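pasting for ref
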Amino acid sequence: MPNLTSVTVRVPATTANLGPGFDCLGAALTRYNQFQFTALSPVDEAQPPILKIDVEGLEADRVQRDDRNLAYKAFCYFFRKRHQPIPAVHITLKLGVPLARGLGSSATAIIGGLVGANALAGSPLTPLQLLDFAIALEGHPDNVAPALLGGCQLSVRDQTTQAWTICPIHWSADIVPIVAIPDFELSTQAARSVLPQQCSYSDAIFNLSHVGLLIKGLEAGRENWIQTALQDRLHQPYRLALIPGFAEVFEAAMESGALGLVISGAGPTLLALSSAETAQHTAHQMQSAWRDAGVNAQVDLAHIDSKGAVVEAFE
């Protein structure tokens, strides 16, 4: 039986890809989903697990309340991987991260389920062991790594051992992320379907060099480096047509002084990076440009979350 009876986990939203950092670079943002897991009764291995799910907050009516719920799937995955019975559980979700917008909502569910299960089980696994589970469930590390660990994270896989190395990237406080969240959705599956199966050596070299420059630019707060580094050839050129008004918002952001504008994750949320001096003006201009293109969008100045997934309360 788990050592705890109830645990509450807060998990940040994430912005991934970051221009040239396709499927390997992501950062946690100060917007959150909260997951409470309460054990209902001792496990009876002769009966199917008891499950109750309540959801409140942003787009709560769209979240599944049965065993298809992604947080519950991750919760079950933890116990199955450890060859333990799945506890009967009551899950309460409080949602602040919009669905299918490129802000890592699925990653919050996966991390929330794994961290909650680990806490109820007495915390037998380290964060990096949980991250291996999360990557297996998500399929790539760029969202789940910062969602679990916080900050900006670069994820690299060893070709021989297949083990993941997670490298924290310092994000200068002088560089302000601005998120523009439109009132339409774009599924990750749809965004991936438009990508080519192969790329040229020149495109691969282009992105390699730009990722290196982006990392150094973020660390040092070098605006001219970041402006160059955010360019990409692997995913964004193919996805732009899926986001109405992108060209108009890009032009408005750059004319207002932004260092660059990229697709957040698979989109359709757009991420601009700016200096503190121009950030508020850039946000206003981005919102106006999207509105003029017929799209309503919520545009916010964001901050980098440094903590990642946090166990906020337990009994």
